[in-house]
Amino acid sequence: MAMKKFINDPDNLVHELLEGFALANSSKVQLAGENLVVRAKPKSQDKVALVTLGGSGHEPALSGYVGEGMLDVSVPGEIFAAPGPPRVIEAIRAAHRDAGMLFVVLNHAGDVMSANVVMGMAESEGLNVKQILTHEDISAGSREDPSDRRGLVGCLPVIKVAGAAAEKGCSLDECLAVAERMEHNMATLAVAVSGATHPATGDVISTVADDEMVVGMGQHGEAGGGTQKLATADKTAEIMLNALLDDLKVKKGEKILVLLNGVGSTTLMELYLVLRAVKRTLKGKGVKLARSIVGEFLTVQEMGGFQMCIARMDDELIDLWDAPCNTPALVVK
Amino acid sequence: MAMKKFINDPDNLVHELLEGFALANSSKVQLAGENLVVRAKPKSQDKVALVTLGGSGHEPALSGYVGEGMLDVSVPGEIFAAPGPPRVIEAIRAAHRDAGMLFVVLNHAGDVMSANVVMGMAESEGLNVKQILTHEDISAGSREDPSDRRGLVGCLPVIKVAGAAAEKGCSLDECLAVAERMEHNMATLAVAVSGATHPATGDVISTVADDEMVVGMGQHGEAGGGTQKLATADKTAEIMLNALLDDLKVKKGEKILVLLNGVGSTTLMELYLVLRAVKRTLKGKGVKLARSIVGEFLTVQEMGGFQMCIARMDDELIDLWDAPCNTPALVVK
Amino acid sequence: MSATIGCNDFIRMLRAAIAQIEQNHETLSRLDSHGGDGDHGSTMRRAMACVEKAIAETGESPDLKALLHNVGWAVMGVDGGATGPLFGMLFMGMSAPAAGKADLDAAELAGVFEAGLASVRKNTKAQVGDKTLIDALAPAVETLRKEADAGADPTRALEAAAAAAQAGAAATKEMQARFGRAKNVKEKSIGNQDAGAASVSLIFRGFAKGVQSNG
Amino acid sequence: MSATIGCNDFIRMLRAAIAQIEQNHETLSRLDSHGGDGDHGSTMRRAMACVEKAIAETGESPDLKALLHNVGWAVMGVDGGATGPLFGMLFMGMSAPAAGKADLDAAELAGVFEAGLASVRKNTKAQVGDKTLIDALAPAVETLRKEADAGADPTRALEAAAAAAQAGAAATKEMQARFGRAKNVKEKSIGNQDAGAASVSLIFRGFAKGVQSNG
Ligand SMILES: Nc1ncnc2c1ncn2[C@@H]1O[C@H](COP(=O)(O)OP(=O)(O)O)[C@@H](O)[C@H]1O
Ligand SMILES: Nc1ncnc2c1ncn2[C@@H]1O[C@H](COP(=O)(O)OP(=O)(O)O)[C@@H](O)[C@H]1O
Ligand SMILES: [Mg+2]
Ligand SMILES: [Mg+2]
Ligand SMILES: [Mg+2]
Ligand SMILES: [Mg+2]
């Protein structure tokens, strides 16, 4: 089927979407420099700033998390493509402060390369910036060698807790420690039931057979079972949750956060069914569902499917997760 | 293509989704009685309560707006089917208070019939409830005889301002007046680019040809142009906005709210492009974009397309629109 | 043949109506699929399951008013469009004049149905000719009154009412819908019977059969 | 033939490289579509447009360090995966040893490219044999050094480097990708040249041609 999207000139897509995004959220964010997204009311200079980068086409991520309690600056790239170093270093320079900066990078080749160049430059310029790399997709690589593990929606809890710590006035090292604790204690698995199209080129990004689903979008479905027959909400939840609990070695009595991220055309309705099933399975295992959140946080255009992210929580992480924030895509009172 | 949804027993779908919904939002809502959604922390009895009813399958609507500053009770029906009077009167009786109740009904045949029966019963029981009917879809009927105009996403601003008025302690008559002013000053038009499936039966709900879009989902597209070739974001925004401004007879210098509601697989990205185009067209006409909001508020499963709702605002309506709320699907600080 | 209709007669009538719907629900859905959303048969089936449940719950020695009220209330509880409120109001409306009566003669039976029709009319402005269930219900109820006035017993009156309902439903074939979802397809609604009218016809057919099974 | 390479020679080399990419971008995208995401040709084209822009912006009487730095920085600004940082680092890395030099002899040219390669290596652990652009770049740079040591002039050295890059790129056909997106398809990556290596080969072909056009 032909792509059916409301767009104008594909070459101007990212700029236009950012304009509309800033307009819709003018009380919270604004555009600065060359397509950088910054807070409408900057955080005071004595607090650590959070900066991130990432391809566009995943709205509301990542710019949707710029605002009080979360990010200070987001550097959106082209559709599905990390921004090159020049705009990123511009952002880092602009956000520079003595309190320091935490640079949140999702593990994707382009993002990491861009980030590495920028970290090198920042160091030589004497900018106080530390990097946290998120790589929690268990469908490739292992917990011991996570270099192949992609960064999926787990960036959200990392940004949330580190952002809350920064807002509280924690030091850069403290913010980094919180971010790392969150990162090391989470695991994500994705399932896809239908493909998506690249909004600028119209290319089909991925396809799934009519009666199938793909658990673990790593090409070989290293964890989770790969391509299989479409299953019920209950069964799918169980398959994914078990793989995640296993990977994270969650033990009886531990408290976890469960985040369900719809990636496109999968409905909230379905995600609620999945959460219900997750809760039942956890109960059977004696694992406590400390917090849960369901929505579309990091999308892949009109793709059908979702990401399930779980995280082992301690009391401090729960407090930071519960802390207020006021961003376009997440508001906590 | 076969339906690809994560569900379990179709007969238990609504109950399961409500369980998951309540779980994901346990700090804000809870289930009561027979699948009623109520606030986790009830509003004090001296304030007007807001009650609504509506079919399921449109998540986050309508139960997603139960919470501080918006609804007190929502009565979800089966998928796409209004709840019958027994559960609705149960909700009304439970929400009953001397301050009175505002009953928000969207103009769809089943909803209205159910509401009429309930209003008759409530009257004979001496319950203090007044009804506000939303019918702002300009694709059928006329502003003078709106009986054929369906209630689309315009229920959201009505619930928002009336809910804020109730929270402030306004009387039932004041809440009703605010709701009516909002209702009379709004207009909505929908565009569809792809169909959806009924999640319980798997039936195809509607289809759109590969290269077409349908503006105004009234079968004959009485306003907006009906079936036409898929257009750019700019062109589509212009077609729809002009039809809405016309219907609402918006004049130069007036202030409007623009609400863009993605109904399923259409991305936030596209909606941002549309909002940008709306802003430009308004500027050309000297109409002020006082407020805007973009998201998925009332969906139709995986359907592609969106609803554009505009509303003429006065200062009081803007204040009520801006007032804080804390619901699963909308949080304003 | 009965000179009066008691509560147990009514239960038999209702059960025969349930059987009619059960046998014809696919036709009803098919009729609803021209212009409507194709769910009328399944909704009626669910409604009839509620009727059966309400009969059972009304208990051993039921009173007619309670029976009709419970049946109406149960049907109302069926989520799904127009059917629940319309058919629910029919039965609930019928219950009021049945108060305090154990057995109904033909005139009283007509009165009960007239009250049901009036109650339906409170929920719709549809008139005969608008291609809705009113096209079957209104002539059926009028026929009950005429037959009672002419001295017919309830059995004969119900048989005549069923014939009138059937004729009314058949006549909807040539009509254009002015209410309900089918209204949206305008002239395309012509050519098929209205689903709701067909349901009413089946229900009256059931009533006529059910009352005879007591013969 | 030149004994030394000045800034204007470099501009000619760069423009010839741009022409090579322009003529072959479809092939590059096709190569990237086996195992990658099929965008390498279009990304390289965008990168080359940035190179052209950087040349223009560097102005009338450019200095070599500034030229290479600006080119590298411009290429870095291309959003899109691995290409921007890798090729950007190549040129930016080349700029440092060019500082203060107007003309480069063959040894200095080799030094400049060695610095570029070192800078690329800072951004990837890929080695020769891993089926990446390193497979073309490393032998090309080594060849520049060998030719300089053997007394070749820059023109000859670049011609030899282009041949080495081409051979290196050709050799990737039999390799299994261990870096980049193509890594995910594992053994299925065998059978086609690596897109990035093919780009490097084209760029060196352009350099060799461009420097000759000054003959
Ligand atoms: N406004 C109305 N007035 C009278 N009868 C109506 C009205 N709307 C629908 N009906 C009747 O209901 C029937 C359709 O019932 P059903 O399919 O169960 O409900 P829905 O149309 O909500 O899916 C129609 O054939 C018609 O007889
Ligand atoms: N980690 C890496 N190390 C070295 N070269 C790489 C790496 N990743 C990709 N490449 C090179 O980049 C080429 C792909 O470039 P391109 O398609 O533009 O980027 P992307 O893969 O991000 O779409 C590959 O053919 C390979 O030569
Ligand atoms: Mg129907
Ligand atoms: Mg229906
Ligand atoms: Mg590529
Ligand atoms: Mg790419």
Describe the protein.
With 333 residues, chain A is α/β, with parallel strands linked by helices. Chain A has eight helices and 16 strands. In chain A, the strands form four sheets. A six-stranded mixed β-sheet of chain A has the order 1-2-4-3-5-6, with helices on both faces. A six-stranded mixed β-sheet of chain A has the order 11-10-7-14-12-13. Chain A has a two-stranded antiparallel sheet with strand order 8-9. Chain A is globular and about 50 Å long. Chain C is an all-alpha fold and 215 residues long. Chain C has one domain: DhaL domain (Serine Threonine Protein Phosphatase 5, Tetratricopeptide repeat, Alpha Horseshoe). Chain C has helices at 7-33, 40-58, 64-76, 83-95, 106-121, 134-149, 154-171, 195-212; strands at 5-6, 103-104. In chain C, helix 6 (134-149) runs parallel beside helix 8 (195-212) and helix 7 (154-171) runs antiparallel to helix 8. The radius of gyration of chain C is 16 Å and the shape is globular. The mean pLDDT of chain C is 93. At the A-B interface, helix 1, helix 6, helix 7, strand 13 and strand 16 of A face helix 1, helix 6, helix 7, strand 13 and strand 16 of B. The structure holds adenosine-5'-diphosphate (2 copies) and magnesium ion (4 copies). One magnesium ion binds at residues 32, 36-37, 39-40, 81 of chain D.
List the defining traits of the structure above.
heterotetramer; A: about 325 residues; 6-stranded mixed beta sheet; 8 helices; about 30% helix; globular; C: mainly alpha; Serine Threonine Protein Phosphatase 5, Tetratricopeptide repeat; two-stranded antiparallel sheet; 2 strands; binds adenosine-5'-diphosphate
Q: Strands of the biggest beta sheet of chain C: in what spatial order?
A: 1-2
Domain module count of chain C: 1
**Bound ligands, each once:** adenosine-5'-diphosphate, magnesium ion
- CATH structural fold name of chain C: Serine Threonine Protein Phosphatase 5, Tetratricopeptide repeat
Largest interface comes to: A-B, 63 and 63 residues
CATH class of chain C: Mainly Alpha
Structural class assignment of chain A: alpha/beta
Q: Figure out the total of helices of chain A.
A: 8
- Uncertain runs of chain A are 218-223
Span of the ends, CA to CA of chain C: 5 Å
The strand count of chain C comes to 2
CATH superfamily of chain C, please? DhaL domain
Q: Name the beta content range of chain A.
A: 25-35%
What Rg of chain C, in angstroms, do the CA atoms define?
16 Å
